[in-house]
Amino acid sequence: MSPDKKIQVQKILQTYDVDIFTIMEANISDDKLKYYQFPGYTLYNLPKYHQVASGILTGVKEGLTSHYDLIKSMGSTQDKCEIIRLNVWKCQNHFKTYAVYNPRQNCPNFDILNITHKTIVLGDFNAHSTRWGYKDTNIVGKEIEDMLNSNILELIYSNEDPATYLHYNGSRTTPDLLLASSDISEHTRRKIIDDPGSGHKPVIASITIGSKSMSRKVPTKLSWNFKKAD
User: Fold this and answer.
1) Fewest 10 Å CB contacts: which of 64, 125, 140, 178?
2) How far is the CA of 92 from the CAs of 22, 89, 149, 166, in angstroms?
């Protein structure tokens, strides 16, 4: 991650008052993490694997209670998918977030995800499906369709939204997906913002926490996808 990219990320965190952020393909080794501090955030790092574009950097706003778990790293099995889980508590609500990076040409196993209430699954899946704007459906896209059909998960997507990735050949696609459990899906919004120079546009997910007893609605904001952060 270059100094310029780090400044761009910090601006986005401040502008959108982000509670949680994840950066896919962050490419940061644990010994280099000290150079990538973000004031006001507690960081968790899944380090890059060998010389492969990989690793997930996660930040949680200080003051929020959180618990981080590494679910799967790239070199652990033949399946190269990277998955981390973050449990966060805000306004007496417990949210579970899975961040996923699935490399191209990899067939992932999503059975290890435990989908319950107040669960978010997000990341770069490299999954093709006509349900989110592709002209074809690949194996990973079929896996996600099956996951949507067999779990209390909803895809947060609109055909009106801009694509999240600009290919070098000029085509635009959406490999970056946001899924929310059905109990919070109606309160979850997705916003694609300007590309900070990575090819992938950052995606802001906002979850409105509200109940009859709460006069004030508090948006919990997650941001991810500052991909290829070097």
Assistant:
1) 64
2) 23, 6, 30, 39
Residue 38 has pLDDT above 50, yes or no: yes
With CA atoms as reference, report the closest residue to 153 among 116, 188, 189.
116
Whether the pLDDT of residue 7 is over 50: the answer is: yes
User: Domains (ranges, CATH) in the chain?
Assistant: 3-224 (3.60.10.10)
Rg from Cα positions in the chain: 17
Q: What 8-state DSSP symbol labels residue 224?
A: E
Polymer length in residues for the chain: 230
Question: Any bridge partners for residue 206, and if so which?
Answer: 189, 221
Confidence check: pLDDT of 103 > 80? yes
What would the DSSP string read from start to end of 149-209? HHSSEEE---TTSPPSEE-TTS-EE--EEEEEETTTGGGEEEEE----SSSBPPEEEEEEE
Report the alpha-carbon angle 87-92-94, nearest 5: 25
User: CB atoms < 10 A from the CB of 111, how many?
Assistant: 9
CA distance 39 to 61: 9
| Residues 217 and 210: beta-carbon distance below 8 Å | yes
Contacts of 197 (CB under 8 A, 6+ apart): 4, 5, 8
